[in-house]
Amino acid sequence: MSALATQAEAAVELRQAGRQRGALAAAWIVALLAILTFLVIYPILTLLFGALTDANPVVEGFNFARVSVANFVTVVTNPNVGEALANTLTACTGGTAIAVAIGLAFSWIVVRTNTPCKRFIAAVSVLPLFAPPLVAGVAWSILGSPRTGLINTMFKWAHIDLRVDFYSLTGLVIVFGIYYAPYVYMFTASALRNMDPSLEEAAEVSGASAFATLFSVTFPLITPAIISGMLLSFIVMLGIYGIPAVLGAPANLNVLTTYIFKLTNWSPPLYNTAASVAILLMIVTAVLVFAQQKVLSGRSYTTVAGKAYRPRSLDLGSWRWVTLGLAVVYLIVVVLLPLFALIVAAFRKFMFIRDAASLFDARMYSLVHFHAIFDNPLTLKSIYNAVEVGIITALAGGALAFAIGYTIHRTQLAGRRSIDVLSTLPVAIPGLVIGVAYLWAWIAVPGGLYGTIWILALAFIARFMPDTVKSLSTSFLQIHRELEEAAWVCGRGVLSTIRTVVLPLASPGVIAAMTLLFVLAIRELGSSLFLYTSNTMVMSVLLLDYYEGGNLGKTAAFSLVQMVLLGVLIGGANWLSRDAAQGSVARSG
Amino acid sequence: MTATLEVNELRKQFSVGRPAVDGVSFAVPPGEIVVLLGPSGCGKTTTLRCVAGLEHPTSGTISIAGRVVSSPAQGILLPPRLRDIGMVFQSYAVWPHMTVRQNVVYPLKHRKIGKTKSTRMVDEALALVGLSEYAERPVVALSGGQMQRVALARSIVYRPQLLLLDEPLSNLDAKLRLRLRDDLRRILKQTGMTALYVTHDQSEAVVLGDRIGVMREGQLLQMGTPSEIYNRPADLFVANFTGATNELTGTLIQRNGTFGTVEIGQGQRVEASLLHGLAPGDKVRIAFRPENIAIGANSGGNIVRARVSDRRYHGTQTVYDIDVLGHRLEALELGTAARHEIGTDAAVSLPRDALWAYRDQGSLAEK
Q1: A317 contacts chain B (CB < 8 A)
Q2: For residue B119, what is the enclosing H or E element?
């Protein structure tokens, strides 16, 4: 009798515990959804509201009385917007065409030919990824400005009757093309590596020439990779502010991003118009992102068997020196020339260069620009602010991304699908649009986030959320589920298992993802533009300030300071994550 | 249409390690199927790829139909497309972005053949491999075996002078492999093409090959008809690789013609076939097949005492471990009934034709 009673009691207890666990899980999901809504949905909704109204948010707050689609239509049909949109699409299409040509050529050279120094070429092919767009833009304005540009000066000095003008749509297309080729390269190179070389050998045995093989077998087979690299580079160009800001401003050439910023800098600021154009930019981006995801998830011809194929290298004969030459030319154009230009401009007292002799005249060089920028208290403050925002973003963003990734991939909780969708949403939102959205979300809220360092950090966390979740997830998806299940069987709870098993094993990936987040946050410009105030000035914005102030020497000097700083940070990050990786290897060994 | 393949002193040295192919010579007369057989890493695939022109030999000559296609010494190296060969790959290598017909017509497009004629040739090739109804399907909708049939059709549609097959069956499941193996020989013989076939599977080699070449560490150890390879293996490795896994060591006491008396310890003598030029007093190793040991037989010569130490029942056959003079040997008995108990002593007969004595150069495992 009493045994039965104890059994019944135990059952009740179990049921209670189950209910408690269920409530806890529900609370967890609700909390995550609330955070994501706060970070992503709320700002986008206010942006949408901004696009549909003509009420000034600073003066009138959120005035729902004047909401109408007509406001949005009026803005979008404005000829200036049309021109900016046309410029954007032209620049991105042209840039993408160049990027595809370069990226495809290099992936073929690196993966499929016997060109010498292939490791070097592979490294060069992704180097431009590390150049902040604004710095690249500044360097090319020093090189390619129609009057004072170094290239034209050299042409004049050499009596070559040729002038270049990078303050133009053509200039924009070229700079876009050479700097965003790595996106195409990364996709196509890995597709080529994963492709069974006997598919190409079969074509050759069948009687096709190397050229015919390339166009009838190789390229058609990696088409999904080409298209998705192409779309990605187009999407990135669409959202870039730094390059068009620098190269387009002197010629009064607007693309959507620069146009949006201009609108908020008008006096009085045209926040509603900016919101409308931002929505337009977001729609274009979202359509392309959707197309890219479709291509990526579609049928891929390249086998992902994880099989290591016998590397196939086409004997190019003496042509291999030509392909090596191409790589060297690319290195000169994307890295060495711009770097040279920045160094000359940063150390030279006056940018006027009469001839080559004057270029190498040591008396013309000094540290005057460096003194000037560090005499400005804003410089150090901006560096300090950038690092502070970077650290907050990395820690908070990393922790949130881990929680989201774990919930999506390793639990069966109801609602995890919506968390997945919400956290991937920012993929389709350019940084600049996030900036405008956060502006709309907080500028009218008194005593709120606007003007603090936190608004920058939150915007960055939202902006980089999809990438962070993805890279963190791969780090713990590699940990076999059974390792966790073993810990549960041993009597550990979920949280304790994460702490004692998942985190230690995933730590290299987690550290790597956080340092990447840190670096991305430090160089972010597009969203910072709308969210900084004089107290929260960050490096990237200050650099733009120097450029717009018209002093190339100071701009170049600060560009160099930023590059060195970023180089040190990226190097340090690499070292840190390698160290962590070794640590975990030592533990598991 | 069908041609002789001659390979002479072929050598291929990759940037690291020992030569992958080390002085291989053989010839394939028109219409014959030669199979290169050997364990992985023996150089058989590299030899085939050199013949195809996908790999560039270090030295030696390769000629097809009397025309030298590769000779580093003379500076001759014809690209694959000019060799007029067909090739079937281990991974099928059918192009997934095309239909069956597009795959098969591909080689004809590069040969300037008129539309009506090429359509007829494709139909013939597809009929030959039994895929006529699948012509318009995308290849990715096919099974592995069907894909390999497409690859075969693609390689024979233009009637090349020489067909190369690189382990074409090894990616298929066991049942399919057997069926396609028999089909393959029929199709090859029907077209009358000269073929060079590479495999590590001895049963495939025996069924398909007119002649088999056994390779090891870049060298061709023996080239002969399947019956020669199975009944008179040239050395211990060939014997072992083709299934003669039992080994006894001993000393040759005396020769009598092609046979010799070998002392295998404790005064026990057996008679064995001498496949190497051996003299009395030489240390020898004797190899023989588990199938050729008859347990409990008192006739047939070479009767030795043995004890059954283990027994593994396989259903249609039974494998016994038996101890003979301290050597552990395997014996195989066909049939669904296992007749010998573990622990029993039995007389064992080792027929002298099935015992092959070779000069003792250390055991294979130590090499």
Answers
A1: no
A2: helix B115-129
